[in-house]
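Sanity check. The docking grid for flavin mononucleotide depends on where the pocket ends up, so I'm generating a full predicted complex first rather than guessing from homology. Inputs follow.
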Amino acid sequence: MDKPKVVLGVSGGIAAYKACELLRRFTESGHDVRVVPTASALHFVGAATWSALSGNPVSTEVWDRVEEVPHVRIGQHADLVVVAPATADMLAKAAHGLADDLLTNTLLTARCPVVFAPAMHTEMWEHPATQENVATLRRRGAVVVEPAVGRLTGVDTGKGRLPDPAEIFEVCRRVLARGVREPDLAGRHVVVSAGGTREPLDPVRFLGNRSSGKQGYALARTAAARGARVTLVAANTTGLPDPAGVDVVPVGTAVQLREAVLKAAADADAVVMAAAVADFRPAVYAAGKIKKKDGQDPEPIVLVRNPDILAEISADRARSGQVIVGFAAETDDVLANGRTKLARKGCDLLVVNEVGERKTFGSEENEAVVLGADGSETPVPHGPKEALADTVWDLVAARLG
Ligand SMILES: Cc1cc2nc3c(=O)[nH]c(=O)nc-3n(C[C@H](O)[C@H](O)[C@H](O)COP(=O)(O)O)c2cc1C
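Predicted complex below; grid placement will be based on this.
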């Protein structure tokens, strides 16, 4: 089989050096990469580096090897074009269809999916001109990954940082795997909850659960690759890297998760509650560490109910028009319990999976049945959590119309 052909466009931002790692990830996973830098990009990383790392010739101009008509051929033959970093200038040129170098020509001739990973100072990113250019590119079907928040060039900090190359690679991998030019969740805002809440007993102890957050992260990653703006409410998911282009809101307890989900859901098209939210929390929080007392039995832990977030947002779905998805982790009578839970919660879709100490939690794979309020049943065979995530988004996209 031919290797998938990737064009890596690099424009002139300080983050150009990070594109070397992105390039490495593509070549090491069997992609044929043609790097097309702009002339400005070569001020940051030289042509020799791109050529040596990709094993392909590198040019910024349409005037090299004219007999091969590179200004047309490179774009025509690509399976994916990714521009990382994409400067404010490059976004403007792409949005307006300018074609004054090899990369901008390539963007006009490519008919494959296109991903932009912008990186710039916050002021440049927030400028209405840049925001309008981004909106134009998204409307035309490009996936524009939201920049991350963090350290920028010099002493500045803010939104505009290039996301981790490993995470940009994940977006590209998903976009390539789907191979569709029009991302079906473009223009949508989706909220995903992930991880497991922790309900504190005292400053050092909590009641928690085994959820790792990997399924929720797979949902966030796949939604971003399908063009959605994603808010990920992450409960105790330390160690999982922030997916590229996803707004991550860290929370600890069920009450905090409720607050964050309701706030993000205010303008959302869909909410997917993949987090394992504790049904109960200790009635009393001890301000000091609970001590063992000689000769005395421990005090019983009294629990109170936590808010039922899924039922709460589902109750409002007729008015909000949102698609609401819940998850049910069951240890027995999986489907029957799932149907009962779907009816009780009132959501559109319920992903039912069987869990156990060595099943699902923390693993890279999952197997589930997605139950619909319309009586539908969609089995998802054992496979990567991303495959289940894509099935969930297929069903959500169909309901969003
Ligand atoms: C040190 C330095 C760092 C820069 N970093 C960025 C950046 O991160 N993002 C950006 O949009 N422009 C940045 N610029 C400005 C661009 O290089 C400039 O707009 C250039 O015209 C972009 O050309 P290109 O889009 O053809 O690559 C930087 C310029 C300098 C000198």
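Relevant for the grid: The longest strand covers residues 323-330.
Also worth noting: The chain has two domains: 5-178, 189-400.
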